[in-house]
């Protein structure tokens, strides 16, 4: 009876939470494990430790090209989507006007639409407009899917932002631009950097849109996709995948720390003056 | 002289009015959001309209015939191959959203009610695997479930099975497992947010009035968190119906989904109008399914109270 009561009261939850986290992490952890294994096929028992698969990576010109392309696309997409995200997030958090929620919904829509449909519809328009497919069209597509994430990060940084600080600055004679540069920007800078990192990470890992919208240039996920056909290339792909995992993990951790700092900063300031 | 004297007051007034208009909240707000809005209109709304238009046209080799026809929809809805793919995609996305919500709810509940000071750490821990490449996560399932994979070699090493099982990979179950794992975090977050909004005094009141933990959960907490359950179900259901990578990598012949057929129409088969009609059909049906899900969850919520 007491055991049943404890079960109903949620006594099983910590154990379940632990198992769930294991379920989330376990599949991902196999990539690094087999990337340092000597055998060419990923199976147990492990055969021995090697860094051979990693040493081969810098000697593959196609891979280096793909990495360079990913870097260009990621940086451009991050900057563009963060700029568009700043404008939209600022407008949504600062002003009230009719249609605000509908516009917000439209901008956030790529988050919940099937990516294939977003990708093929963009492909159709670009072909109709006579745009030749290149890294540029990939950037255009990535910006569209990055804006919702950028908006989410930035609105959490802009919300709770005390408007009286800006008014005080304007009253004291600062121009609109001066107020933005000297009051608004320092408060929201962590959120902006966080948005840049999040967008770069998404673009770095994004496959479907790049797959449909690129011409002959491959980004890293497309390169990996091409290698998956060859069983013998698998360990190299696992090594490259591990490096990408580590990069995503680091970038997102930094972004999260910055986002929290931004939220704390605006809220503390608000609390001080409220 | 007189003309200017008479003309200037209204002129000044219109200018003042125009300035007032320019400084009004709606205009400033709309002006600020317009670049982002225009971007979404050109790269999202316009393309979707173009797809809808294409779905009513036909293609002869490389030229598009723009006379109106419903032929593509007839093919999309009646040809056995597309009908089967559509059904399978809907079945998979429904199963995946049900599974993710069922698996995610206890976690969201645990973090919200028992997370204590470590709530944000828990959330971070759970979301971090999902910022890694989707392609790589699918690939790791291929490594796990494969013929020579982790699970098979592990089970053989432990002496549980004698020879590798082929039942693990290349079927719709493999697709369901992979997608359930891939979308877990997206289900946890909305449920967590709605659980955070549940008024804790209501739960206590139910207990004070004699409800046990299970009854107070079923009658208070669960109905109040229904909005989170709804958005979690939708946020998983709509994108998964059009998933391309998972069926391609782990689905094999029996796990092919509608997105693979859509891609083929824009690639090898090169029949854009049919591909467009398949996309529109998928979107319409998944929207209907999403609407039905919302209605069912709302009805259950009313029943519980």
TrEMBL record, chain A:
The chain crosses the membrane at residues 12-36, 66-90, 102-127, 133-154, 191-214, 234-255. It comes from the Bacteria. One of its GO terms (cellular component) is plasma membrane. It is a multi-pass membrane protein. Residues 67-255 form the ABC transmembrane type-1 domain. InterPro entries: Bact_Polyamine_Transport, MetI-like, MetI-like_sf. Keywords: Cell membrane, Membrane, Transmembrane, Transmembrane helix, Transport. It is found in: Cell membrane. The keyword Transferase does not apply. GO terms for biological process: transmembrane transport. It holds the Pfam family BPD_transp_1. Belongs to the binding-protein-dependent transport system permease family. CysTW subfamily. This is Spermidine/putrescine transport system permease protein. It comes from Mesorhizobium qingshengii.
TrEMBL record, chain B:
Keywords: Cell membrane, Membrane, Transmembrane, Transmembrane helix, Transport. Its main location: membrane. It is a multi-pass membrane protein. InterPro entries: MetI-like, MetI-like_sf. This is Spermidine/putrescine transport system permease protein. It comes from the Bacteria. Belongs to the binding-protein-dependent transport system permease family. CysTW subfamily. Residues 86-293 form the ABC transmembrane type-1 domain. The keyword Cell membrane applies. Pfam families: BPD_transp_1. The chain crosses the membrane at residues 37-57, 90-108, 120-136, 143-161, 173-195, 216-238, 276-300. One of its GO terms (biological process) is transmembrane transport. It is found in: Cell membrane. It comes from Mesorhizobium qingshengii. GO terms for cellular component: plasma membrane. The keyword Cell inner membrane does not apply.
């Amino acid at each position: 009876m007491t055991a049943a009561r404890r079960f109903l009261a949620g006594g099983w939850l910590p154990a379940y939470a632990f198992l769930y986290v294991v379920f989330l992490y376990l599949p991902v952890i196999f990539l690094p494990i087999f990337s340092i294994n000597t055998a060419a096929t990923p199976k147990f028992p492990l055969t021995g430790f090697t860094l051979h698969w990693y040493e081969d990576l810098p000697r593959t010109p196609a891979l280096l090209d793909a990495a360079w392309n990913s870097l260009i696309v990621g940086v451009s997409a991050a900057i563009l989507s963060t700029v568009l995200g700043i404008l939209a997030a600022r407008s949504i958090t600062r002003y009230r006007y009719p249609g605000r929620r509908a516009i917000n919904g439209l901008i956030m829509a790529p988050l919940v639409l099937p990516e294939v449909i977003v990708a093929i519809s963009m492909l159709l328009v670009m072909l109709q407009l006579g745009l030749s497919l290149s890294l540029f069209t990939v950037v255009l597509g990535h910006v569209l899917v990055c804006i919702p994430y950028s908006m989410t990060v930035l609105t959490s940084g802009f919300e709770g932002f005390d408007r009286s600080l800006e008014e005080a600055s304007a009253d004291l004679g600062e121009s609109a631009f001066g107020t933005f540069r000297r009051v608004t920007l320092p408060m929201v800078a962590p959120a902006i950097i966080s948005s840049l990192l999040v967008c770069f990470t998404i673009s770095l890992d994004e496959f479907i849109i790049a797959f449909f919208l690129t011409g002959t240039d491959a980004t890293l996920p497309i390169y990996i996709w091409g290698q998956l056909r060859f069983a013998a290339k698998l360990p190299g792909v696992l090594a490259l995948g591990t490096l990408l995992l580590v990069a995503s993990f680091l970038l997102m951790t930094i972004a999260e720390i910055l986002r929290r700092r931004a939220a704390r900063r605006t809220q503390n300031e608000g609390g001080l003056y409220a | 002289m007189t003309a200017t004297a008479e003309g200037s007051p209204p002129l000044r007034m219109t200018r003042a009015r125009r300035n007032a208009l320019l400084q009004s909240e709606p205009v400033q707000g709309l002006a600020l959001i317009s670049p982002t809005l225009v971007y979404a209109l050109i790269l999202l709304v316009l393309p979707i309209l173009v797809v809808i238009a294409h779905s009513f046209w036909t293609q002869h080799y490389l030229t598009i015939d723009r006379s109106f026809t419903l032929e593509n929809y007839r093919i999309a809805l009646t040809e056995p191959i597309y009908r089967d793919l559509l059904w399978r995609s809907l079945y998979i996305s429904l199963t995946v959203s049900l599974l993710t919500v069922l698996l995610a709810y206890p976690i969201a509940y645990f973090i919200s009610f028992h997370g204590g000071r470590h709530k944000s750490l828990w959330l971070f821990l759970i979301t971090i695997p999902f910022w890694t490449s989707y392609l790589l996560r699918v690939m790791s399932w291929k490594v796990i479930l494969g013929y020579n994979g982790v699970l098979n070699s592990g089970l053989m090493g432990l002496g549980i099975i004698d020879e590798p099982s082929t039942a693990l990979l290349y079927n719709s179950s493999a697709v369901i497992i992979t997608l359930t794992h891939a979308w877990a975090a997206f289900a946890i977050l909305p449920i967590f947010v709605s659980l955070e909004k549940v008024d804790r005094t209501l739960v206590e009141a139910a207990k004070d009035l004699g409800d046990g933990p299970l009854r107070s959960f079923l009658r208070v907490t669960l109905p109040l968190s229904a909005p989170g359950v709804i958005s979690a179900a939708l946020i998983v259901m709509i994108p998964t119906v059009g998933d391309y990578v998972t069926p391609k990598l782990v689905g094999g012949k029996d796990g092919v989904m509608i997105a693979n057929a859509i891609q083929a129409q824009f690639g090898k088969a090169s029949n854009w109008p049919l591909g467009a009609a398949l996309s529109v059909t998928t979107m319409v049906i998944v929207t209907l399914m999403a609407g039905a899900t919302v209605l069912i969850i709302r009805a259950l919520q009313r029943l519980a109270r």
